[in-house]
């Protein structure tokens, strides 16, 4: 599935902005039947994680705080989802871009800074693989810790949450260079980038598959 998805994403990136949403939607439609057969409700994407089947769905919507995004997920019987691997990160990007009339935006994910790394800068002890933990109770391993280069830096020592950047371009430039389908640490109640390319546009919910 990753090969097909990656191919369609490559095609989409070569299209004009007007044509691109149709390509994102085609990817999602191609996955719908497989997901329902594996115990996910309509509109949710199935992933076969090492811990078991997991259903994910990206919702469009502005949430200034991570707690608001978590409440929104709970209202549909799920939790703010983590990311198992790059395949899931690409799905989140694809699903958001299919819903918004913009070329990029950020997505809240179920991730928090570990207790030992609170108020600590990036270091060998608090690295991209150890400074954070996923909170959905399903993610295993560290393949999903796909942080931007030099991140998570814990700027001002208060960036205890994280977001994923979804972008039709390979990267966006706003107070630095930020790359598509990668994570960045932010404050848990931060409005990223005002109304720029990294503005908050959605959140990813997840729950165990029924089968």
TrEMBL record:
The keyword NADP does not apply. Keywords: Signal. Residues 1-18 form the signal peptide. CDD domains: CLECT. Residues 51-164 form the C-type lectin domain. InterPro entries: C-type_lectin-like, C-type_lectin-like/link_sf, CTDL_fold. SUPFAM superfamilies: C-type lectin-like. This is C-type lectin domain-containing protein.
